[in-house]
Amino acid sequence: MKLTVLVPALAGLLWAGSALAVSQLEISNPYVTQLIDGESINPKLLDKTSSFPISAGKHQLVVAFEGNYSNRNDIKLVTAEPLVINFTAADNQTLVLDYKKPRNESEAKLFVQDQKVVLKDKASGKVLESEQFVLPKVEGFQLTRDYQQELLKIGKAFNQPAAVAVSSAAVMAATSAPVVAAPSKAQSNPEALTQLQNWYNKADAETRKAFQIWVIQQQ
Fold first, then answer.
1. How far apart, in Å, do the first and last CA atoms of the chain sit?
2. Which of 134, 85, 137 is nearest to 114 (CA)?
3. Which helix (H) or strand (E) holds 106?
4. CA distance 206 to 204
5. How would you class 44 by CB atoms within 10 Å of its CB: exposed for 0-12, middle for 13-18, buried for 19 or more?
6. pLDDT tens figures, 151-191
7. How many C-beta atoms lie closer than 10 Å to residue 177's C-beta?
8. Measured between alpha carbons, how far is 37 from 34 in angstroms, rounded to an integer?
9. Which of 64, 101, 159, 194 is most buried, most CB within 10 Å of its CB?
10. What is the per-residue pLDDT across 100-137, written as a single tens digit (0 to 9) for each?
């Protein structure tokens, strides 16, 4: 009698466990996760691989390439504009961001020109179909960026509201205009700030990234 009751109970528990099963998304350095489905992610820079639970269904992933190839003598940082990946996950599936990982600064500079990556099912090795595009470059002094707002402006955010959808051409025209910082009342040395902005705007991506890291360390 007890066995008759126990078997259906165990079957019910197994069914409940499978219904609650979630998929996993694994991202390895030097790619750093910035957004998942419009939600900001606090990057774990010291972890070689970060894992995130996701449900079955449509998702949007935003990752940024942040390669650090520095040594004791030189700062060697290679960065690229954020990559947006739209995909559909199955239930109880582990997906990994797969790419040929650059071994040094030279390889990294070549890699970021195209950013050839795929999402793969970890168990089967099958490549998942996805839609990918690179976010437009933002000119001017940028310590941080709001990627979700940028996606909303170009009409490509996750679950994009219809009222926010705009022409991509109009956004590109707007972002191409030079950025001029408004004067601050607390500004003690406006000439130095202007010179600093000029230097930053003329710097390449690696130098800008190194400067951003330095500024954050000073806070």
1. 69
2. 134
3. helix 105-111
4. 6
5. middle
6. 999 999 998 887 644 444 454 554 444 544 444 444 455 65
7. 9
8. 10
9. 64
10. 999 999 999 999 999 999 999 999 999 999 999 999 98
Place of tokens 């609650």: 20
Pairing of strands 31-36, 57-68: antiparallel
Give residue 140's pLDDT band: very low, low, confident or very high (50, 70, 90).
Answer: confident
What does the block give as tokens for 14?
A: 């197994």
pTM value? Answer: 0.66
Residue 65 vs residues 44, 90, 106, 169: alpha-carbon distances, Å: 14, 26, 14, 25
Identify the CA nearest to 88 among candidates 64, 117, 55. 55
Evaluate if residue 25 carries a pLDDT over 90. yes
Burial of 77 (0-12, 13-18, 19+ CB in 10 A): buried
Exposure string of 119-151, with b = 16+ CB inside 10 Å and e = fewer, is: bbbeeeeeebebeeeebbeeeeeeeeeebbebb
- According to the model, what pLDDT value does residue 192 have? 58
